[in-house]
Amino acid sequence: AFWVKYNTAPLILALAFLPYLDFSDFDKEPRRVDLNISWKAWFTRLLYLASGFLIAIFGILIDFWQSGAMPALREVQFEVLPRYASTFLDRMPHYWSFAISLINLHLGIWTEAAFGTALVLAWWRRELRIIAPVVMMAVAGFISTASQVRFSSYAFETAYPFFAMIWGYVILTGAKGFQFLRGYFKLHGWRLAGTLLWLAAAQVIYFPLPSIAYTVGEDYRGFADWMRNPWQSYVNYAFQIPLEKLHDQLAIIDYLRKTSGLPGGVFVWGAAPLINFLTQRPNPSRFISNFALISPWGPARWRQELIGELNRRPPRYIVVARHDEIPVVTLTYDDSEKCISKFPEFGALLKNQYEPVENLDDFELYIRKSP
Hints:
Blueprint: H1 9-17, E1 21-22, E2 34-35, H2 39-67, H3 70-91, H4 95-107, H5 109-124, H6 128-146, H7 160-187, H8 191-206, H9 209-228, H10 230-236, H11 246-258, E3 266-269, H12 274-279, H13 291-294, H14 301-312, E4 317-321, H15 327-330, H16 336-339, H17 344-353, E5 354-359, E6 363-368
Parallel strand pairs: 3-4
Antiparallel strand pairs: 1-2, 4-6, 5-6
């Protein structure tokens, strides 16, 4: 994970300290956090952690070196990734409103409110020592997400478990508050107030249930469809990720399976590596998606590399994707088909050496012309 995303560093830093911090005096004045072991013992354990981490990294580097992938590693990590982030920041107007909107989308207003509510409740109840470790990990996970600049949904997974714990604290504290008010009303004989309290609690509990029940029900229905017929379940799945285009992607796979007697690889001009995987047809290029080839952050020489690979090992089929634009990654609103006009060498190769054999809404399949 570290080689793919350097944003794991905040979590590693948190893990180096958090297990050894003593928060027992954090609710007293002056607030204090101490180590629960000696500094010498902590440093020794830190050396163990760092040694294990470095040994793993060293092993990975040896594997890259032996496989001949070291130049590609250096290229991606030290040339492309910095451009991937900086180009996005340079070309994204109103970046902060973009970031805030995605945070609200993926975390949710209620989760953000729960985070602040938990801090206030813990301060008021003198329980900061209880939630401080969870808050630290949630913040570390969020920093890991924010450092990626683009706020993808899957990047928040480093923080979700800890926000779930914070929700648990808020719910548990709310339940204790409910019991206290219930007892207080009962002690004073306020039956109407007690009844209204139950109604308020029922509303709080009911509020999230319909959407949760619907989501769970749809998941199990989709699972049942998959058990009956996996292939059809993928084709007709109602909640596909828009980029996947599963219906037409599986139609292309089915076509290629029926022509399995014709040898040769498949190159997908788009982002659909499932076609290569399920048909077991090799990709003639290292580019399993064209994101870097149609984006300003991708090195221009990569296009020439692709053309060279396609000429040296021409695939039998080329698949061109449509309606697969993803501006937040590629910084263009053009789909793969339209981007061919910006890559004349690929367009010429496709026109001169291939002819269309299958045309779907989201993909067009080309076969190599006979010599």
